[in-house]
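Quarterly update, task 2.4: pyridoxal-5'-phosphate-bound model.
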Amino acid sequence: MTAPQAPEFNIHPNPDPASDDARAKLLADPGFGTVFTDHMAVVNYTEGKGWHNARIEARAPIQMDPASSVLHYAQEIFEGMKAYKQEDGSTALFRPEANAQRFQASAQRMAMPELPEEIFLESIRRIVETDRSWIPPGEGGALYLRPFMFASEVFLGVRPAKEYLYMVIASSVGSYFKGGAKAVTIWASQDYSRAAPGGTGAAKCGGNYAASLPAQAQAIANGCDQVVFLDAANRKWVEELGGMNLFFVMDGGRIITPPLTGTILPGITRDSIIALARGEGYDVHEEPYSFDQWRDDAESGELLETFACGTAAVVTGVGTVKSTDGEFTIGSGSTGQVTQKMRSRLVDIQRGRAPDPHGWVQKLF
Ligand SMILES: *Cc1c(COP(=O)(O)O)cnc(C)c1O
């Protein structure tokens, strides 16, 4: 079997990149998702012709016809991943094939063409290589990569589009939540659902996020940082936050995380934490956990900690849960020991400070 050929990306350097001074200023305190690099990756897709014209070019606005079908029927998917500076000065990705595969699964759910894994991986390698000077120095700093694809065909009929654009933009980031590793307060939404059986909950599509925003606004209005969604059918089972998966740490070394039944996004951080926690000797169960049980276990002390996880914010403790029925506090209300330990285990591997027994880290240069 021959290895699939890495596609050739034509490189068109930005003729007017940020100066060293301007970049250094931006990287001093990048925040999350506001500082962008000089370049982007672009690949076109046309039915019949397939994927073509792979290139790295200056980051610039996209010219779009107002009848581009994504603007009407929302065929759009994305990924989120990071390039990390390693302890030894090299730059690495974390499980990029998992992102490539999930991107294909999301495409399938939204009736979009699947981007070959090799094109996805090469686009990531090329953009990181081209914009390597944009990785912020210091703990927590990374180059956040946002691959995405949308229907660009100019057509108002309702059917899968025949033309798509795949792109990758890159953003220099610091810590996701302002205030660092503080435990968050979350709002349990009783009015809104994120995903229903047979719906798009397991696909990383923009539409899921649009639909989650009123619930997130309610969370903010009630003094919370994030929203937690319950299952749509029974409003009983705890599913996940708007963009992070959940873990429950019980007394006696048991850890529970909701199972992937199709309404939960299969997080790569979630999958990594399950493996790491098992490696630490925890008894990890992927099983349904109800909101009532959550409150009872928090009140009885059976539940020691709850944490949320995802690429952007890594691992974040949940201190308090509020809903229209009142609120409860988990443990001391601050980030717990197991949460901190799992966060360190993961970050140490990502940063090359600890052995990588699962082969998750892919060094680029
Ligand atoms: C992206 C995402 C996650 C986290 O996935 P990671 O691969 O760990 O970054 C969790 N939930 C939702 C809804 C997401 O979109």
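Highlight for this quarter: The chain has two domains: 10-173, 184-350.
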